[in-house]
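This part of the workshop introduces the protein records we will be handling. To make this concrete, we reproduce a full record directly below:
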Amino acid sequence: MMCLHQSFNLIGIRLDLILIGIFNEFFIIFLYWLPLLARKKG
């Protein structure tokens, strides 16, 4: 019972890390494109 619970915890931690990684990628892309978009409008 305990082993199963621990494995589920590991899966949850991995999903959190994957979501954080995806969010960081989008954030970096957003920060990169923001000045370019501002330059086009301005």
